[in-house]
Amino acid sequence: MDFELSEDLTILQDAAREFAAKELAPRAARSDADESWVGEQIGLCAEMGFLGMAIPEAYGGSELGPVGTSLVLMEITRACASTGTTLSVHNSLTSEAIVRFGTDEQKARYLPKLATGEMLGAYALSEAGSGSDAGALACKATPEGDDWVLDGTKLWISHGNKADLVVLFARTDPSAGSRGITAFLVETASEGYKAGKKERKMGLRGSPTVELQLDGVRVPGANLLGELNKGFGIALALLDGGRIGIASQAVGIADACLEASVKYAGEREQFGKPLGAFGAIQAKIADMATRVDGARLLTLRAASLKEKGRPYGREASMAKLDASRNANWCAKEAVQIHGGAGYTRDFPVERYFRDARVTEIYEGTTEIQKLVIARTYLR
Predict the structure, then answer these.
(1) CA–CA separation, 81 and 68 (whole Å)
(2) Contacts of 121 (CB under 8 A, 6+ apart)
(3) 369 with 320: CB under 8 angstroms?
(4) Partner residues linked to 260 by β-bridges
(5) Per-residue pLDDT tens for 186-223?
(6) Mind telling me the catalytic residues?
(7) pTM to 2 decimals?
(8) Among candidate residues 215, 219, 213, 166, the one with its CA nearest the CA of residue 194
(9) Which of 23, 47, 255, 310 is most buried per CB count within 10 Å?
(10) Residue among 71, 87, 60, 80 at smallest CA distance from 15
């Protein structure tokens, strides 16, 4: 097994880190404090080609592949988790949905615009009564001539008020349970589409999370994604890839915690010595570094399997489970190393602590990941 990145991937990683440090990190605290949309940051990412990471070059994308995309997401999130979340959803849950399941016409119409940032993509699966139990969704799609009419409400939709195109799941057969769900490509300019309540969140405050209200939204039949009543399988397939994205985000947050802790431990003195001279602090740094590297390896393993076209669902869940737990652990330890200062907004570890928490919740909770992993052994 080769643990070394290729020269091209190393160059990509270095470029992403330099870009994130220069353009994203200085803006991150402001977006968090003001709860202001990271639209400017997304525009800068578009110029770097980071909105087209999952899109083939034939459609104007950068086509970095799963490993390259994971590396970029780690570096972006290391600087700004709100920007990393937006990129992850746009690439792994919207663009990839069209690449994998779209018609030639859908690809030609949407992928070039998604690649350049002319359109921003979102993903709408969750509802009030269907979080982890995604198959219980109630949003309905009714056929009307050659079109479909969508009615219902979606919850917890990342940047649903800023997106131009949403991969949205609705019930097309009320009697068929999870076998009666279909995926649609919904343009947010459609009449009847409305972004409702914006959630007041603990973290990721530069990435708005909103309710979507669908009141008679008319969707052309040509915008049905994949096959009729096969949407639940599409949702699960996309979430496998999305979990690599969340794991990458979590690695980025944990790495930022490690870097901040090393810096503070070298600068802050107590009892006439830098904090880093004390064994208790050294133990924390050692544990953080080991957890970050372990999570990174699990994440890149899942991304590598996906890139090779091999099964990767279990490995994606393992990566998401481990990386998200470690991000939260590292954030807690980073605040502890900073002491009282870490509890204030004068230092970024306070933000990392809040941003890390949701990585154990969205796109499959820690508990769901354990179920997924266990079932691959017990079936």
Answers:
(1) 18
(2) 89, 90, 93, 94, 95, 114, 163, 164, 165, 166, 167
(3) yes
(4) none
(5) 999 999 999 999 999 999 999 999 999 999 999 999 99
(6) 363
(7) 0.95
(8) 213
(9) 255
(10) 71
